Amino acid sequence: MLEQSTRVHAARRFGPGVDTEFHIDHDWWANSNLDYRFHLYQQLCDECRQRFRTHVDTEAVDWVDAETGEVRRVDALTECLRINCTHQPDFIDDTLPLTAACFRVFLSNDNRPLSPTELSGIFEQSGASRRSQWTPQEILRILNGKQVFMGIRPAPAAP
Ligand SMILES: [Zn+2]
Q1: Is 9 within the bounds of a domain?
Q2: What is the CA(19)–ligand 1 centre distance, in A?
């Protein structure tokens, strides 16, 4: 409890640090002129990308749950990522730029906020930092730069 509030105060005073949590900021996407779903489409695995061909007209499709047979109306790209692509062993690998790798981590964990320190640990485990040194400091430098990449911004501090 004490540690948490100390951390929040430090972030307010000195700006984000390696323990500041980031996430995909959907308000940022809504206010940008970029197409979120186009960027979602880019994260699909090759097989799924060929199946959909485009990100257009897949916002609301009837999706049959393979296990229960239940039909639900969902965003096909989000659903496909959730049940398929994010589980592929190479979903987060060392062919990705750092910002795309971060974006994919948040897609695969339901956008649960993570700090650069935590992201660095995930990249180490997944092999994504094989080519580049994705230290917490390097991740912070990129995510906290002047330009916002893929809507990844500091998550609001817990009340
Ligand atoms: Zn896939």
Answers
A1: no
A2: 32
Residue 45's pLDDT is 94
Residue 4 lies in a domain: no
**Spacing, Cα 104 to ligand 1 middle (Å):** 13
Q: What pLDDT is stored for residue 56 in this prediction?
A: 83
- Residue 5 falls inside a structural domain: no
Classify residue 63 by burial, with Cβ atoms within 10 Å: 0-12, 13-18, 19+: middle
120-140: per-residue pLDDT in tens?
Answer: 999 999 999 988 989 999 999
- Tell me which residues of the chain have a pLDDT lower than 50: 1-2
User: Distance between CA 153 and CA 15 in Å, rounded?
Assistant: 12
Distance 34 CA to ligand 1 centre (A): 23
Overall domain count for the chain: 1
Residue 143 corresponds to which tokens in the numbers above?
Answer: 């995510």
So what's the pLDDT on residue 18? Answer: 97
* Domain, as residue range, for 126: 15-154
